[in-house]
Design goal:
Elements: E1 2-3, H1 23-40, E2 53-54, E3 58-70, E4 77-79, E5 99-112, E6 115-126, E7 134-137, E8 148-153, E9 159-171, E10 174-185, E11 191-195, E12 203-206, E13 216-225, E14 230-249, E15 255-276, E16 313-326, E17 344-360, E18 363-374, E19 396-413, H2 416-421, E20 429-432, E21 441-444, E22 447-455, H3 477-480, E23 495-503, E24 507-515, E25 533-545, E26 548-564, H4 566-576, E27 587-604, E28 607-616, E29 630-639, E30 649-658, H5 661-668, E31 686-696, E32 701-711, E33 722-732
Length: 733
């Protein structure tokens, strides 16, 4: 994006009238008067042979290449439990070395005068970071006959990613900036330590390394725009991927701990393409994006305002902070997955960027980096209909970053022939607004939508305009999805998959296939395609009832993976005398099925009703969602326009859920699952009520007061009821 530079407006010295003037002097007078005339008329850009100033405003993306120098290369396996003395520590030769880094970045800038600020997210490979591997001499403190030990390491997370803020000062086409933010990556992969010749007690295994501290990147750079849309830059970053701890355990009371400080100096050079401040595409686009943006629930498209011109890209962000607490409540006992009965309070937050880029007519790619921090109430256990769906289940005190979504979406319009015959087919099209994970533009009402990549099953299936998004509406699980919809997801709620949607005037058919987690409720998604997966189908019918719009959806699904049949788990516990029973003792290939009905109905303008009912095959363990085998949930949501506060909202809802008999027996014996397990069970179906009032401060900032009542939490009549009070603060653009 270019902008004109003004000519100087200082006074021009004109020779005294009548004085002799040379040809050069006369030419100087003419040129000076011409510059002054142009300046007075605002046309200075036409009057000087200098390049115009450069605007840094808008979205950009590019690639970088550089090198990294580690600060710490040494290794130490500290002898901990069972050894009793540091003389048994092991010191394998370090293999960390300087390496190459190569990656991609995308960001957005704002500018006011010479000051530039914005954000950037990037993902880069970082060579040279791996665990030691091979045969090493042992400490003399060990008994004779143990002269050496062996280390075998799997691949590590040799990458770094970040979400960073940027602030800088621009002088024409040059930009000096400072940058800093939260980083990810650098973890050590699983490893094995073998002492001497091996043996049952001489083999130590370690999982992925863990870190409880924040990973971050800070630095500075210089960027120069050498063309209208291109810039080159040089950048320095100090990358701290924290103190990674990895514990080697032999399951016999002995352990080693590896603590590696992963810090690096990075110098890299990059090239960026700038899309410019003007974010509109000339000419009409026939296809756009189906309204499934995160946090958006649009039944029939966005509004048709003029501000919804076709976009080349979309940039949005949202931060949600939730405080929840409950006082002491009646409980005959507490268990491993219980709400502590003495009372509890927790704070959690999520901050997301929603970046989208139109690739071609109807096709767009999206990426959502996210920063999570804090904890769900009681570390995300205690109730089957859990009380907070707005924060990550994986809680950490320090902020951490993940790429939660990255996917491609393609729109195939089905009214193309009619448009060619008649260009005025407004009744056959609609305009989608610019919002999270949605690029504005005109689309055919009848269309096919394909989504491929990493995203949430709920981005496409089981939507409901009145109860679906915990960052703006109800917080409890029971009201945001079908309770017995045991959908595929990692511990954060996302997975890899393909979804297809066929939308017609009054109906939509959807189908999809998604990867399950490696083990039920695991942190990792199954890497082998179709080894463990879920198939899901949904049919939606839209209608008018007493001149008020509504819709009903029918959903069925099947989880195909390695699952435990609960009766087999109980049988094994009795045969082996292994109590409490463990759900991982009887896993084999199985298919778990289920389904449900989802209704939304507008009762009057700004007042709506929703209903969800679902059931699943409770003979099997929970796969990736929550511990419910049957449920009914319903409620009302009213917009503040009813009482003169357009940005406010109020909601009230109730839910009933229960378990299959096999699972009741499992929890009675002290078993635990994803969200519940009190150590014993006096079974009674869980009952939930939630009410909230959202106060809007404009369209993009709001505060919500929330109250939840849990009767028989975790399906247990021996505990509760629990009164949960919450405050949610949200800001978005």
């Amino acid at each position: 994006m270019q902008r004109p530079r003004s000519c100087p407006t200082s006074s021009v010295a004109v020779p005294r009238l009548g004085a002799p003037t040379s040809a050069a002097a006369r030419l100087s007078i003419v040129v000076s008067l011409g510059f002054a005339f142009c300046a007075l008329n605002g046309n200075a850009a036409r009057c000087e042979d200098r390049p115009p100033a450069f605007s840094w405003v808008g979205m950009y993306m590019g690639a970088s290449l550089g090198g990294a120098v580690p600060l710490h290369a040494g290794e130490r396996l500290q002898a901990t439990s069972g050894f009793g003395a540091p003389v048994f520590d092991l010191y394998p030769s370090g293999v960390t070395r300087p390496g190459v880094t190569i990656g991609v970045q995308v960001g957005y800038n704002w500018q006011r005068g010479p000051f530039v600020w914005g954000f950037e997210t990037d993902l880069s490979l970082l060579d040279g970071r791996r665990g030691p591997q091979g045969l090493f001499p042992a400490s003399p403190a060990y008994v004779p006959g143990l002269p050496a030990y062996a280390l075998s390491a799997n691949s590590s997370a040799n990458f770094f990613a970040s979400i960073r803020g940027r602030v800088g000062y621009a002088w024409d086409r040059s930009l000096f900036y400072l940058t800093g933010g939260v980083a990810a990556g650098g973890a050590r992969g699983p490893a094995t330590l073998t002492l001497g010749a091996g043996g049952p007690d001489a083999i130590f295994s370690a999982p992925w390394s863990q870190s409880s501290r924040m990973k971050y990147a800070i630095g500075a750079g210089f960027e120069y725009a050498f063309a209208d849309n291109w810039s080159a830059r040089a950048e320095y970053l100090f990358l701290n991927q924290s103190l990674n701890t990895q514990v080697f355990d032999n399951d016999a009371g002995y352990a080693y701990a590896s603590r590696t400080r992963n810090e690096n100096h990075l110098i890299r050079f990059g090239l960026n393409y700038h899309f410019g401040e003007k974010n509109e595409i000339l000419g009409e686009l026939h296809y756009g994006h189906h309204p499934h943006g995160a946090g958006q629930n649009s039944a029939n498209g966005g509004n048709n305002g003029a501000h919804n011109a076709p976009e080349r890209y979309s940039v949005h962000a949202q931060t949600t902070n939730v405080v929840q607490a409950y006082p002491r409540f009646r409980a005959l006992y507490d268990g491993p997955n219980s709400f502590p009965s003495g009372g509890k309070a927790n704070v959690g937050s999520t901050t997301d960027l929603f970046l989208g880029l139109r690739l071609w007519d109807g096709g767009a790619v999206y990426i959502n980096p996210e920063i999570d921090a804090g904890y769900g109430l009681a570390n995300s256990v205690g109730a089957a209909s859990y009380v907070n769906a707005a924060v990550a289940k994986v809680g950490r005190a320090a902020p951490y970053m993940r790429f939660q979504r990255y996917f491609l979406r393609q729109i195939i319009g089905l009214n193309g022939g009619e448009r060619q015959r008649d260009p005025d087919v407004g009744a056959r099209s609609e305009v989608l607004e610019s919002t999270q994970n949605q690029i504005s533009g005109k689309v055919d009402k009848n269309r096919i939508v394909l989504t491929l990549g990493k995203f949430a099953v709920g981005d496409v299936f089981d939507d409901n305009v009145y109860a679906h998004d915990p960052t703006t509406g109800f917080l409890n699980f029971a009201f945001n999805t079908l309770g017995a919809f045991d959908y595929a997801a990692d511990a954060w709620g996302y997975t890899y998959g393909l979804a297809a949607e066929w939308k017609q005037d009054w109906w939509t058919a959807r189908g999809g296939v998604f990867q399950l987690s490696t083990v039920p409720n695991g942190l990792d998604i199954e890497p082998q395609l179709f080894r463990q997966f879920m198939g899901v189908a949904e049919f939606e019918a839209r209608y008018d009832l007493f001149d008020q719009p509504g819709a009903i959806k029918f959903l069925v699904y099947g989880d195909n993976g390695y699952l435990s049949k609960i009766d087999d788990v109980i049988r094994y516990a009795y045969l082996a005398g292994d109590f409490p029973p463990r759900v991982d003792t009887a896993r084999g290939r199985a298919v778990k099925t289920g389904g449900g009905i989802n209704v939304r109905q507008q009762v009057a303008p700004h007042l709506g009703f929703f209903l969800r009912a679902s059931m699943a095959d409770g003979r099997y363990e929970t796969v990736d969602y929550t511990d419910i085998d049957r449920s009914v949930a319903f409620g009302f949501v009213a917009g503040g326009a009813l009482w003169g506060c357009d940005d406010d909202e109020i909601g009230v809802a109730g839910a009933f859920s229960g378990l299959h008999g096999s699972r009741v027996r499992y929890f009675e014996l002290g078993g635990t699952s994803v969200y519940i397990g009190d150590g014993a069970l006096s079974y009674a179906g869980e009952k939930n009520m939630e009410a909230y009032y959202k106060i809007g401060f404009g369209k993009n900032i709001d505060a919500t007061l929330d109250y939840q009542l849990l009767v028989n939490p975790a399906h247990n009549s021996a505990r509760g009821p629990v009164n949960v009070f919450g405050l949610r603060l949200r800001a978005a653009f």
